[in-house]
Amino acid sequence: MRVVTVASQKGGVGKTTLALNLAHAMARRGWRILVIDTDPQGAVGLSLSSKLAAAPGLAEVVTERRALEEVLVTTRLPGLSLLPVGQVPPQDTHGFGSYLADGRALRRIVDELAGRFDVVFFDTPSGFQGITLGAMRASTHVLSPVQAEPIAARSLTQLLEVVGALRDEGLHLELAGLVLVMLQMRQSASLGVADELWGQLGDLVLQTTIPRDVAFLDASAAGVPVGLLGRRPPLVASTFDQLATEVEGRLSLNRVEDRDDGPIPLVD
Ligand SMILES: Nc1ncnc2c1ncn2[C@@H]1O[C@H](COP(=O)(O)OP(=O)(O)OP(=O)(O)O)[C@@H](O)[C@H]1O
Ligand SMILES: [Mg+2]
Questions:
Q1: Domain 2-249 in this protein, CATH class
Q2: Distance from the CA of 263 to the center of ligand 2, in angstroms?
């Protein structure tokens, strides 16, 4: 089982969007996927439904008020499950973060889930402290969205430092890659940043980029991944199918039944 923390130094760069849409695309490709919301502001729950935002979840599991089994939410897509963050009173947010920071509570949950999912995604609050650090400590990989804007490169240094420090602690944490998001294809400044990052960081930056697209706002408003915006989803949904393929490679995900995979005859 791969455990992937989706994290970034900056807020509002598209972590939740990336986690949810990538999870959806991977589940459609046949993987068993779980998204765990660790953001006390309930990012995943809030963006999907008000029912999820009010549901018990991670907070109740780590405080042993609920069993994991009781709070896992299945979705219409058989391969995709969610673990909402649960109810964290605003005044307890800091305590929740400090409690999770050493990674032990989240690792216990990951151990309990082993074998039931192929990939677990942690959606995290912005910054690399508290909850996010705990999620990274319980993870095998980190995936980070990077907004294609001039200051992006600076916050990347912090990400590389944090991953380096955790590896020094003896953790086997790998940077699965950086995903350029909110790319404005018609703006040279945006493309310039993308070009610069590829130049500086090479393979660390995934080839698939996510454009800035109004469909994400429509999807947020409707509480669905972009791939579920309609029977014929918008073009941007296909970028997540492409990203899913690339991330599978980065996570070295191989199915036993895929070993003898090959061309499938169109006509028998
Ligand atoms: N590629 C995109 N194009 C246009 N809008 C986007 C894109 N990605 C995300 N958004 C929008 O930007 C806003 C912030 O995205 P999101 O909530 O995913 O960021 P976040 O990093 O999870 O934020 P936070 O740090 O608050 O958790 C949302 O309204 C989302 O719909
Ligand atoms: Mg978020």
A1: alpha beta
A2: 39
